[in-house]
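ok posting inputs for the adenosine-5'-triphosphate job
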Amino acid sequence: MERPKIQVVVRKRPLSAREIRKSQTDIVSVDSITSLTVKEEKLKVDLTKYIEGHNFIFDHVFDQEVTNEEIYRVCVEPLISAAFDRTKITCFAYGQTGSGKTYTMMGEKNIPGLYIMAAEDVFKTLNKKSMGLKAYVSFYEIYCNKLHDLLNERQQLFAREDAKQNVNIIGLKEWGVSSVEDLMKVIDFGLSVRMVGVTGANDESSRSHAVLQISLKNGNKLHGKVSFIDLAGSERGADTIDNCKQTRIDGAEINKSLLALKECIRALDQDKRHTPFRGSILTQVLKDSFVGRCRTVMIANVSPSSLNCEHTLNSLRYADRVKELRKVNKPMKKEDSLADALMLPRQPSNTVRQTKPIVSVPPQEIIKSTLKAPSLSKESSHSAPSIFKNPDVIAKYLSPNWQAKSEKDLQEMSEGHERLINLILSEEEDLINSHRNHIDTMVGIVKDEMTILHEVDQPGSDVDEYISALKIMLENKLNSIKEIQNKLDTFTAHLKTEEEISRKFYKLQTEVLDRN
Ligand SMILES: Nc1ncnc2c1ncn2[C@@H]1O[C@H](COP(=O)(O)OP(=O)(O)OP(=O)(O)O)[C@@H](O)[C@H]1O
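and the output
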């Protein structure tokens, strides 16, 4: 059977001594080699405490005992031979700061990381097969949306797309290496440059994506490539609400790049004609990992600590979305089902709930609070990124009168298209988050409805109060549906525009290139 193009695996790290000292508990249980459960502590509307188990299934799940070597054997080793068969192999480490990305990719003192094991196998094969191939290594990082060469004094680099649509990184140093020892020296140097970073603070490394590539070349011609990408801390995307402007901008860039990455991997998996690699500088420089013959492994690293529950769930949801569309007609996930959310007696067996009453809120209070403050979506409404205030202007490119006469026109269209992709990426994430909030809102309202219904059944109840509360609850439901419906309509309209623009762009591009 053909190996899937994408493999999504999860690695749970052990609790650190510090976390144990601070009495943080392990909330991630690895149930089998493909599934895990996150036990989240939650409060019901009536302030009862309970544990909600979120179950996830991946291609492989590694627990805290698993070594880098075992991960290498399962995820990377089977792909190395493909690199000698003109395939681009890419391995991503994703996860929040401190979840073990660098430990996995680069290793630590006396603990080799995945890249070193891959290099050993690459050199073994090179020595065995005399194919006239030579190995070159490059190592750079993307920090504040700029490329820096870690093997050349952090010199700033620029990515350019040539006429054949290949993306080249101008000035990137590639070092010829002929043994693992050579390679280790070069990479240790790059790592030490990375650690120092711009300000020297450790915080900085989690804000950059590090890209380490081993290229196999026949003369000047690229034959195969193995890339290891230690991504920026996934939670850094949330820095968009930070007070400092620069931090906010960096956060937005990280967010954009992680969203674009997800889209590119999914496009690769679905053999889509169009890969939205222009969505960020990260996906742009990794373009050749998303087109043609490629194999990708995404390792989602998670912390087991109770304190990191939200980030862990976010990382797993992201990883789940990367692989989700591979399955056609995927059954509705248990954790999302309304019956589950409503806590009806038909509980799925993998959802664990331990109910511990703390305070019980009297039904009258629920009625009062409904009358005072109708609880709508928790989330603030989505606002488009400032770079794209009026998405409809892009529609001008679809007018039959608009034709690209020159490469400059094409460039203008491509930039408009890129802005539209950015908007779509953020809208998609917003829609999914809003949908989750919508379900929470609905569940909250249904529970409130059940409470007032129970209340009105009691002798001597106040029907007027019941009517007012019910009216508000129904209005809230309608508003919540309208809100999500509007987002869905806008999103699907933009998707349609993007597809049409993309089609027209490639047609015009061929015409312009043929003309010149
Ligand atoms: N599987 C593991 N076994 C033992 N220790 C681990 C493991 N994974 C991570 N650690 C330890 O956890 C700490 C954080 O790991 P690491 O630096 O790799 O995180 P990171 O995700 O790369 O963080 P950042 O995004 O900040 O660079 C390190 O001290 C590392 O030694």
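notes: Residues 463-515 form the longest helix (53 residues). Residues 13-14, 16, 95, 97-103, 108, 205-206, 233, 301 surround adenosine-5'-triphosphate (CB under 6 Å).
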